[in-house]
Design a protein that fits this description.
disordered C terminus; alpha/beta; 14 strands; four-stranded antiparallel sheet; 433 residues
């Protein structure tokens, strides 16, 4: 899937959102009238995918008190999306998609709003335990589960996200109905089931390494880790480790003020964004007792990290995901942090990059269309100041982004992000809608 080394002195020609030519700079003929970008000394790579995000919208007001609820307009939607694009993320998989995201996906595709491609999964769960409607669909029987899947398919969602509190019969109804209508089933491992059960059922994606950890009953032995990794490697199920999600929760336990003061947090100033962070921190994280906090820390170091490495060593193709915008995971910025987490457990920078470039398109069945810098592929690209194969942190040094064939130079990206930091919410310019 492309070279592991740098190909120097190349010219890449893009037309109508496709790469139409690649060749040595000295001998490649450049068509008249094109925009020329001097990339001397820089590095061109495929744009990134974040395969586990959430996208704020009107439905998230359910988490806020009535006086704090905020109607969302196009300016807000554009600002929520732009942080992804500014960080080179041009495809995201939304694991709690709602009805308004369906129309937004189509508008992005038509170029009316600048943003990453949206892959939309509707969340489905047992009633009265976790995320309420309209963020999720609650079902209490196989019949309700079947109806929910059929409704999601008819509405235009791309997948069903199963959550933690489904009963076994409802889960089976989701799987069978989704198979009938051609929707992937992705997400959590319901507490009433086992890792082996969801693998055997054909669940397409497990959304966290933590989900597997919850089902090992504290057995973090190397033997248990190896056995689970081998079982998953023998299945057709993908894994999105989301190591940065747990890392972030632990950091909030240790020093919430420092975590909320991270440099990228200045771009997350919209009232809904702030309200959601506050709700989750005060209602979900702060009540966790010390003993459980220590258990989360132990599980992260002794299971999640070695388990993720064991998956990689056995050939499981990992998908980079972040759970942004959970506190304090700022969209786009969090993806670079996840890549760094993967390198920290033993992946090479090249291997970590693949989790966010080629692997997502293999997962989507679209590797012939995107995910590498090749003639005929979609022109979603990132131009970096320094070589990411030498140091994974170089993915942060973005000189420009090509999204849907449109060139966004770094200075334009930084100027608009500065407006976000100033609280103007990054009002789109006339060409950004």
């Amino acid at each position: 899937m492309g070279p592991r080394c740098v190909l120097p002195d190349q010219t890449v020609i893009v037309a109508e959102n496709r790469i139409v030519g690649i060749g040595p700079t000295r001998s490649t003929e450049i068509p008249e009238g094109v925009t020329r970008i001097d990339a001397t000394g820089r590095y061109l790579i495929p744009a990134f995918c974040d395969m586990h995000v959430h996208l704020l919208g009107d439905a998230w007001n359910i988490m806020l008190p009535p006086e704090a609820r905020v109607p969302i307009d196009d300016r807000d939607r554009a600002s929520f999306l732009f942080a992804h694009v500014a960080n080179g993320v041009t495809t995201v998989q939304v694991l709690s998609a709602t009805e308004d995201h369906i129309g937004l996906r189509e508008r992005i595709g038509r170029g009316e709003i600048l943003g990453p491609r949206l892959i939309l999964a509707r969340m489905i769960d047992g009633p009265d335990r976790a995320w309420p409607p309209p963020l999720s669909t609650w079902v209490a029987s196989p019949a309700e589960a079947r109806e929910a899947v059929l409704a999601a398919q008819q509405a235009g969602y791309d997948a069903m996200k199963v959550y933690s509190f489904l009963d076994p019969a409802s889960y089976e109804a989701i799987i069978s109905t989704a198979n009938e209508v051609g929707l992937d089933v992705i997400g959590h491992i319901p507490m009433a089931l086992s890792v082996e059960h969801v693998l055997g059922a054909g669940q397409r994606l497990i959304a966290h390494s933590e989900e597997v950890m919850k089902h090992v009953q504290g057995d973090f032995s190397r033997e248990r880790i190896d056995r689970l990794a081998q079982t998953i490697a023998a299945s057709d199920t993908w894994i999105s480790p989301t190591l940065v999600t747990t890392r972030n929760i632990l950091a909030l336990f240790d020093d919430p003020d420092a975590e909320l003061s991270r440099p990228e947090a200045r771009y997350f100033r919209h009232p809904m964004q702030q309200g959601v962070w506050s709700f989750i921190i005060h209602n979900l994280y702060e009540p966790i007792p010390d003993a459980q906090r220590q258990a989360i820390r132990l599980g992260f170091e002794q299971f999640q990290r070695p388990f993720t490495r064991a998956l990689h060593e056995r050939g499981v193709k990992l998908l980079a995901g972040t759970d942004a915008p959970l506190p304090t995971l700022v969209p786009g910025f969090a993806l670079h942090r996840e890549l760094e987490e993967l390198v920290a457990i033993g992946l090479s920078p090249y291997e970590a990059l693949r989790s966010s470039t080629t692997h997502p398109y293999e997962y989507l069945g679209e590797i012939d269309q995107a995910g590498t810098v090749e003639v005929g592929k979609q022109a979603n690209l990132v131009l970096l100041e320094e070589n990411p194969l030498a140091d994974i942190t170089h993915t942060r040094g973005i000189a420009g982004v090509v999204v849907q064939g449109r060139w966004l130079p770094g200075d334009q990206i930084r100027e608009r992000m500065s407006r976000l930091a100033e609280g103007s919410q990054g009002r789109p310019e006339s060409g950004d809608r």
